[in-house]
Amino acid sequence: MAHEPDIEQFKKWSTEQQINWIVEHYLQDLYWVIRPIVKTHEDTDDVLQNVLLKAYKYLPKFRFESKLYSWLYRISVNEALNYIKKNARMKAIDTQELLIQSLRSDPYYDGDEMLLQLEQILQSLPDKQQEVFRLKYFSEMTYEQMSELLGTSVGALKASYHLAVKKIKEKIA
Fold this sequence. Notes:
Layout: H1 7-12, H2 15-38, H3 41-58, H4 68-91, H5 95-105, H6 113-124, H7 127-138, H8 143-150, H9 154-172
Helix pairs in contact: 2-3, 2-4, 3-4, 5-6, 6-9, 7-9
């Protein structure tokens, strides 16, 4: 995870300077928050553009009561989930079906059937369990890092992760 800016200095900058700092320091991290949710590079770029536009719009109102990255992370997840739901409605298909189709059509997908099965199982989990599992398993975050990022207790995160793992094991068996 990227470092936080010097808040007092950051507040003095124009919104354009703030966005430039965000792009320079957080763009890659935000890309990899969005990519596992929407599956394709093109969709990730679209969502990332929306995230930056939303950040630009709301940065002047941001009060720094949470860390900047935590705020951007929440925007990224929400924008990615909204993007999936909007595309599923437009195509009149199930969200899970759309995600699987996107994964299969992604040029970076290597045809790994276990990955496809894991993605299908993850899509069946509640959003919170999906998010915690992805952060712990794919991003290798500690519970403490997730707690800071999500504003949730370590105990609740451990419970969500273990429930997700249990459900995944049951569905694989």
